[in-house]
Amino acid sequence: MPLNFHKNQKRGEFHDNKAQSTGRVNTFGQVAIQFHKNTHALRHWIDKAQDEAAACRPARCARPRRGSTTLVDEFIKEQNSNTSAPRLNIAIHICGSRGDVQPFIPIAKLLQAAPHHHRVRICTHPAFKDFVESNGVEFFSIGGDPEALMAYMVKNPGLLPNMQSIKAGDIGKRRKEMAEMMDGTWRSCIEAGDGMGERISALNVDAAEDLFIADAIIANPPSMGHIHCAEKLGIPLHMVFTMPWSPTKAFHHPLAAMEYGEVEKSVANYFSFGIMELLTWQGLGDVINKFRTQTLGLDAMSPLWGHRLLPRLRIPYSYLWSQALIPRPSDWGEHINITGFSFLDAGSNYTPPDDLAEFLAKGPPPVYIGFGSIVVDDPVGLTKLLFEAVKLAGVRAIVSKGWGGVGGGEVPENIYLIGNCPHDWLFKRVSCVVHHGGAGTTAAGIALGKPTVVVPFFGDQPFWGQMIAKAGAGPVPVPFKQMTAESLANSITFALQDSVQVAVQKMAASIAEEDGAGDTMRDFEQRLNIDAMRCQLCPERLAIWRDKQTGAHLSGLAACTLVEKNVLDVKHLRLLRHRHYYTHEGAEGPFVGAVAAFGGLMASLGTDTSDFSQRLKKRPRESDLEALKRTLTRDDSDDARLEKGITSRQFHHLAYRMAAKSYEDDMIHNFEKPSSRPGLTALRDRVAARRAKGGRGYQIVSATAHYIGDLTATGAKAPVALFYNMANGFRNFPSYAIRNDPARRRDEITGFGSGCKLAGKEFVLGFGDALVGIARHPYLGAKQEGALGFGKGLGRGLGGLYFHSMAGELTLHCEICRSDVTSNLRRTRILLEGN
Fold first, then answer.
1. Domain 54-341+518-533: assigned CATH number
2. Has this prediction a pTM greater than 0.85?
3. According to the model, what pLDDT value does residue 5 have?
4. Which residues form the Erythromycin biosynthesis protein CIII-like C-terminal domain (predicted)?
């Protein structure tokens, strides 16, 4: 959707003339979207988008085994039913607060327990390491500081920051943090260790059991790197979230504040999800594409179609809320499920302090007031406001200190200040809960039958406040910036009414019958299609190889055994991709493709310049100094290394050399793993040593050389990207404008050979579609509408002839050039990797 900026528009606004809508950022961090008139054309566009989404094919599973038949498949299925499922390595990516992390822990514990026995790793911020590991789940740090993020969000609740934050460089810090977390999501899929220290390569792991390669990913949408990591590894992806993130007509996006005007609410609601995703890609598109191209080696993706990636691929979703609070929308597909709230039973082993137990026993159940991970600028002022509100409401209260530092000064007798305490223990002993509207705290309060008062700060918190008020479980939310002692006291008084108590108790009874964590775990395993991931010879193991000749799916053990017995040639083995994500569908038309290519060029130039600036600021790395030391002191250190003893990894390398008959006279070299590219390793060491020895002058020269190389690569890719995007536009336009069929999937390009093969195939199929369309469309038109339909069909056929012919002609050239450029750039990236 093109966004046209007007000269007189206010900061944070955008206008769309075609849809007759505007948007601006309000003080809650929500995008206020306003429709100025009834847009029937927009409704037609949304209906068509939903029809296309329903017809769109999901991520494709691994190609079936060659020679399989129905009887064979049924026999294999029967055999597999008596065999345990393969043990998977599952990475769970989570970005957010403690309330976002907590619902995933029960799911992880179920997946790693009997009978599944999967290895599950929760990958989130380092601040939650102790919390995750204390619950018996493996942890990996993806970086990021949730406390700093919360402080930033409170200071800048809107999507656009204030001038103070801009001057302080907060925008650059947050973007750098998002880049770090996306890189962390990839590391969490392939690295050993916990991600807290230096990176641990596979060569430096002593025990094979410590190695980790993800076989499946579970993620929440804000973690951002999920789909890209899954595409690179070719593994299943399952999204799990605590708030709605899939387009629907039933309600608007939780981060959107709607101003409907005269437009139908259902149309505006559906439209809000696309706007929010597009804004995210507009702000982070360059960071995402840098992650895809430089870290993962994937093609860049334009925001014009990247923001529709997950709905188009029909990635499965499990939403963690109760349908007693938000019913399932009727327009969601079968790949979306609502499984219920997921609770961590942390209160069963909790023993309260004596003063807390004494306070609870002294009088009637108190009111709980806490804002969790929210960080406020004036904790003293907030403390005074809360104490005054409790006094006006005439209640007792337990006030949580939280991250905001509430509770300084003298505390009245009817108020108790509490630190970290399990909600499932505490909420059973209070009369109502007052909080910021986080999804986790909302779930805990409603599930225990406690009326809820939401004081939203930013983000999705107003959405949950509205849902609670709509369900009758609490008052209409009053935002934090508008909250006074009087308004909070009135909200507490409203929540304690009998009618609210009855409504929330009814919801609690319904939630008690649900099993959110268990249903989410079962939903995940059902969508895995685990039988298709088994090894054919060892069904209890995961298949990771595919025999090119027979199509057999083999585990590592089976493949090694067959190669050792000379039954299978190792040259015929290919890595098995259990999921193929079709992410390069491209533009809807040639003009959109040209715009996307130009935008991608500008973004690439900006990224190259930013990288150049960062390289100039870098100081010599420790690895450079170590490389310099190795070149100077290696001979003198050999004896000392032997005197320190030999590790199990060194013994493994010694055995490998003996088996490979590569034993050397120099004893120290026998305990090192033979390098598959010794010349490249030596080159990297020399470059790193020169960088450390050359100082600032070498750093400037090196950064400039990299910059010139990056600009050259960007320039080489620009014309290829232009023709490639236009070819996609010509190829896809008939499916949008002439017929309603989904565009045909293309094969993947893995090198120059596959690029040439694909170019020839698309050339033939493109002209084939053009010629078939001339006969097909007039025939179908005449069959449906007679002579008038014949004329319309003839027009569609001639239009298809032009677009398909242009697509075939452009594809023939651009696919070959694209594969050649891709191969050369990958080789150049490998050579410069150590620099």
1. 3.40.50.2000
2. no
3. 33
4. 409-510
